[in-house]
Amino acid sequence: MAADSPLKIVEGGSLTAQQKKDLLNRLARIEGQLRGVQKLIALATQPSDVDAVAQQMTAARKALDRSFVQLLAGAIQTQAGQATDLEEARASAAHLAAMLDKFA
Questions:
Q1: Of 96, 22, 72, 73, which Cα lies nearest the Cα of 30?
Q2: Are 64 and 47 in contact (CB under 8 A)?
Q3: Distances (CA, A) of 100 to 30, 43, 63, 75
Q4: In whole angstroms, what is the distance from residue 25 CA to residue 104 CA?
């Protein structure tokens, strides 16, 4: 698959197709931000250029953090809504809470 071709969104029980599409769009914007940071670094000649790089890196990091929250929120909504009983909902919630504890 070419780097610029769109990804095929697969239906499943983890996230809805719309949640996946929203996350992929957000990640594409972050990817663009990171390319901009790379250019800023390559062209940096003045001390103030380092400030601009730091500012853009911080913005990209925060955007990635927001996408992580979006991922977990989407998983909570989707998986809780698809649970067939209370025990399954609890197990799903426990798994997502463990992810939050591990990765956040």
A1: 22
A2: no
A3: 21, 38, 17, 12
A4: 22
Rounded CA-CA distance 14/29 in Å is 23
pTM, two decimal places: 0.80
Question: 9 by DSSP, 3-state: which?
Answer: coil
Structure tokens at 50: 């380092």
Radius of gyration of the chain, Cα coordinates, nearest whole angstrom? 18
Structurally, at CATH architecture level, domain 17-103 sits in Up-down Bundle (1.20)
Determine the 3-state secondary structure of 66 from DSSP: helix
Domain edges within the chain:
17-103
The Cα 100–Cα 88 span in angstroms is: 18
pLDDT tens per residue across span 9-60: 888 778 999 999 999 999 999 999 999 999 999 999 998 899 999 999 999 9
